[in-house]
Amino acid sequence: MTKSRGINRPQHRWSEAQIGVLRTRFPNERTSVVAQDLGVPDYIVSKKAAQLGIRKSGEHLSSPAGGRIQRGERRSAGTEFHKGHVPMNRGRKGWSPAGSERTRFKKGHTPWNGAVPIGALRVNSLGYLDRKISTDKRGALNWRAVHRLVWEEQRGPVPKGFLVAFKKGMRTTEVEKITVDALELISLADNGRRNVMWNRYPRPLAESINLLGHIKRRLRKREEEAHGSHN
What we know:
The chain is mainly α and 231 residues long.
């Protein structure tokens, strides 16, 4: 394993005393003030507070120290457009500031991601291997999943309401291992059932996750109702 070489942000080990300060002061003080006194960056304080479920109090958020614009408050009066203001491009269709032509894309310009040749491979955001199949469409439409291309090449078009999936334990991004023997045709309904929480985790863990989500939603709703009653 290689070192991060300074790429990753430094980790902070929280002491019990620091956590006590965080619990006491974070709800009613600016994050920057708490962070400065603890000697750590703001983002570390915010992250730890979120992990512990500590939130800003309603009183703090409604105060000037909360940094929120209150009802009826105006902070931008000096920079607002006023009634009767005439914009500089009024009546000048296609107008642009002088000098902007230097940074415009020229006719025939090819973006860096459009120069990738047909046949190129990539791993998409879902972790599947894609192959570029054209250059005349927009963005992701020029790419197709390799496992679907392999299936269609040997088994024909995928029927409506079905999709091509990897068999259990055979998913890969190594192109030579994506063969029709590693794939299967399943319905959209079966795919939905396959991916639900109950099938991905042991049932006790899935039930705990579901219960925790329910509790968090109830707590959030009560906090919103309490905050609304104060207003």
